[in-house]
Amino acid sequence: MSKPVQAVKASMSNPKAWVVIGLTVAGIVILAETHRRRRKGKRRANAIREDFGAFVEKFELLPFPQPPPPALKQPLAGLSFAIKDIFDVKGYVAGFGSSGWAETHEAAGKTAVVVTALLKNGAKCVGKTVMDELAFGMTGENTEYGTPVNPKMPSHIPGGSSSGSAVAVAAELVDFALGTDTTGCVRIPASFCGILGYRPSHGAVSTVGVLPNSPSLDTVGWFARDPSIFCRVGHVLLQLKTIEPRRTRRILFADDLFQLSKVPVPKFKYIVTKTVEKLSGYQPPKHINFGQHIASSVPSLKGFREQSTSHQNGISALKALSSAMLSLQRCEFKTNYEDWVDSVKPRFRPHTTACVQTAISTSTENIKTLYKIRSEMRAALHDLLKEDGILVIPTIADPPLALNMKKRSFAEFYDRALTLLSISSLSGCCQATIPLGNHDDFPISISFIAFHGADKFLLDTVSDMYSSLQEQASIVSSSLPLPDTNGDMDASELLKEKGNAAYKGRQWNKAVNYYSEAIKLNETNATYYCNRAAAYLELGCFRQAEEDCSRAISLDKKNVKAYLRRGAARESLLCYKEALQDFKHALVLEPQNKYASTAENRLRKLLS
Questions:
Q1: Mean pLDDT, range 447-462, rounded to an integer
Q2: Residue 397: helix, strand or coil by DSSP?
Q3: pLDDT at position 8
Q4: Mean pLDDT, range 229-250, rounded to an integer
Q5: Cα dihedral 175, 177, 202, 383 sign
């Protein structure tokens, strides 16, 4: 035997040699995998630079042949669109935003009805877009396919679950895009990306060939930058008649819902009021407390409501509405997907896993009550809006969250968002999201809601008002200045006493007026602000109450009532952490204060 062979045999019998060989092989494998991931990451980064990470898959579905002249050109001829990864396209798997889903399902045999309708009307489809897994989520984040980059605020979430479709439109990659809206999946990203978004009346647009999340809440919606394209797409999908009798419009401004918004209420009021003044056929805006209307008109919500004080009655009803919406979504998701989850045991990201587990463990015993709430909500909205009313609300209360925020930061964001989003979802009414520029550098929007089935009426309203709304939004200041006057101290005390008498007589508006006059005469008295805050609380004007209490505290750091009232206002605005801090501060100043102690315990439970 040759010496080299003997040497090899000897070394192979040495255990240390095997360790060295193993480490060498492992090192080669690790280097190869690292290189592969770097190349993949580089490809992904290049893709994001090119298309803002909006697409899961790109392809081309060409429009149907156009009719020869003298026939009219198709309404969507020359336009491009993208679709959420939830629509069937023949020969492609609808991925549902999840590799766990895509790997266990086959390619579609037919294309979704709505996609075919758009192709027939001249538009070209260019690909499928990223979405939250299984359409659970409102941030638009997807760790598997990457989170689409919000063109308006790249370091913040784009909103979801139809995030890729919204980003594709906002980044001008397509003329319009399809999404789905169950609990806000079109409305949120439209608002966060600063574009138009539409949730149609439930059942008005075909969902054949669309993966369901919760059939009683699911709708096919769309995005666009241009109001003309926005309306043309609507006419195609809703199969609307081109001519309809002109109707007078009543604008109903939901004062209590704007209290939840982080944008100053006067800004919204000014924009809407000035716009309406310029248009014919529009009545001056009427101001309503929407929560109180729901509290009195939807009796079946009683089982979902928390115990509340009189001034929190309306907001309590709206919170109950969002709870009912989530319960219905979970029940129907369970019915559709429990067998698949049990048999396949797919892996999801933590948020999706929590949503799926909660849905699968949900009892369906109260499903009839949930359907009853839905019917009562639709009737309540029709009673309020009738055939000529437009309800104006903020689309969402908060600015877009920063990317990769910790889960604890989401709780209040979700609560405030769902309170607003549940209105159309549970009533089935149509809702249009309209961008209004920026506030503090983040995109803002308002929403118009019309009764179920009034889609053409709503689209015509958007077409009427859009340019004037943009004009007013560009010139309005972020807040309206308050008068700055000084006066006689004795007169201000007299006005305060009159305010106190009006308050005791439950004449809240009169009390606010007296306290406001007192403040004009003496702007450094904390009691005047604190007393006016109490009247604002009774009126449900929580944002004004919070501002007055903050002013009172800046003037008097030991004003216990100001902390208590600001805590109550913030709790009503669903700002639980800030409310908890106020009640804690009140307890530091007055350790035996029962109201503060009870409130602190209640908020600790909510936050846990």
A1: 97
A2: coil
A3: 46
A4: 88
A5: negative
454: nearest Cα among 395, 387, 393, 392: 387
For the full predicted model, state whether its pTM sits above 0.85.
no
Task: Tell whether omega for the bond before 297 is within 30 degrees of 0, i.e. cis.
Answer: no
**Gap between the Cα atoms of 130 and 143, Å rounded:** 10
User: What is the band of 478 on the pLDDT scale with cuts at 50, 70, 90?
Assistant: very low
Span 156-166, average pLDDT: 97
Q: For residue 222, what is the DSSP state? A: E
Show the 3-state SS of 371-392: HHHHHHHHHHHHHHHCCCEEEE
**Amino acid residing at 326:** L
DSSP one-letter string for 499-551: HHHHHHTT-HHHHHHHHHHHHHH-TT-HHHHHHHHHHHHHHT-HHHHHHHHHH
Q: How many CB atoms lie within 10 A of CB 73?
A: 11
Q: What is the mean pLDDT of the chain?
A: 89
Q: In what order do the strands lie in the sheet with 430-439?
A: 55-61, 124-129, 80-84, 176-181, 219-224, 196-199, 430-439, 442-450, 389-394, 250-254, 286-288
All residues at 6 or more sequence positions from 320 whose CB lies less than 8 Å from its CB, including other chains: 301, 304, 305, 306
pLDDT digits (tens, 9 = 90+) for 270-283: 899 999 998 989 99
User: How many C-beta neighbours within 10 Å does residue 423 have?
Assistant: 25
Nearest to 416, CA basis, from 311, 322, 328, 325: 322
Separation of alpha carbons 218 and 202, rounded Å? 7
pLDDT at 107 over 60: yes
d(CA 190, CA 426) in angstroms, rounded, equals: 20
| Predicted pLDDT of residue 412 | 86
Domains and their CATH numbers in the chain: 55-400+409-478 (3.90.1300.10), 487-607 (1.25.40.10)
| Peptide bond connecting 70 to the previous residue in cis, omega within 30 degrees of 0 | yes
How does pLDDT run across 396-424, given as a tens digit for each residue? 999 999 998 776 567 889 999 999 999 99
Strands 442-450, 389-394: pairing is antiparallel
> Contact at 8 Å (CB) between 81 and 174?
yes
pLDDT of residue 241: 80
Write the pLDDT tens digit of every residue in 328-384.
999 999 999 999 999 999 999 998 999 999 999 999 999 999 999 999 999 999 999
User: Can you list the positions of beta strands (E) in 400-499?
Assistant: 430-439, 442-450
pLDDT at 583 over 80: yes
Contact 433, 396 (CB under 8 A): no
The interaxial angle of helices 15-51 and 3-12, nearest 10 deg, is 80
Mention every residue, 6+ apart, whose C-beta is less than 8 A from residue 238: 200, 204, 205, 455, 456
Quickly tell me which residue has 């006493």 as its tokens: 497
Both tokens assigned to 267: 């800004």
- CB–CB of 101/134 below 8 Å? yes
Find which of 6-10, 198-202, 302-306 is predicted with most confidence, using mean pLDDT: 198-202
Q: What is the pLDDT of residue 480?
A: 45
Inter-residue contact 39 to 32 (CB < 8 Å): no
Strands 430-439 and 196-199: antiparallel
